[in-house]
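Protocol step 4 of 6.
Sequence for Palmitoyl-protein thioesterase 1 (Lotus japonicus) entered exactly as in the expression construct, tag removed. Do not edit the line below.
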Amino acid sequence: MVSTFAGADGDCLQKGEENERFSNLENLVLIMFEQDTVLIPKETAWFGYYPDGSFKPVLPPQETELYTEDWIGLRTLDEAGKVHFISVQGRHLGISEEDMQKHIVPYLKDQSSREYSTNKAGFWRMRGHSYRELSAMK
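Step 5 output, structure tokens:
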């Protein structure tokens, strides 16, 4: 039997298909919002989920098949110290500027290429800020 799961784009992927690309990330910052009502359970932000056939308890990511069988490379990244599980107050995607500075910007500052500027500017545009505002925060 081939195990599948829905990827970020909603397409079904075979186990291991995304593993190589995912496990090559330098860092993976997973942010869970404590008052999230969009993701159910909110722990899915960290790849946690319910056990098969049940709605309780919520399994931490390290106890899911996705992790233990390393379907996407999450276990490989975690064992290498590259996964950062962050929990912040707020509703879905309602991250404060203080939490952005604390939990996201340090990973963006480590980038030195043009890609850094594009990614950082794009993220801030998504949050309704201009790149100039971000530059002023440095």
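Step 6, annotate. The mean pLDDT is 78.
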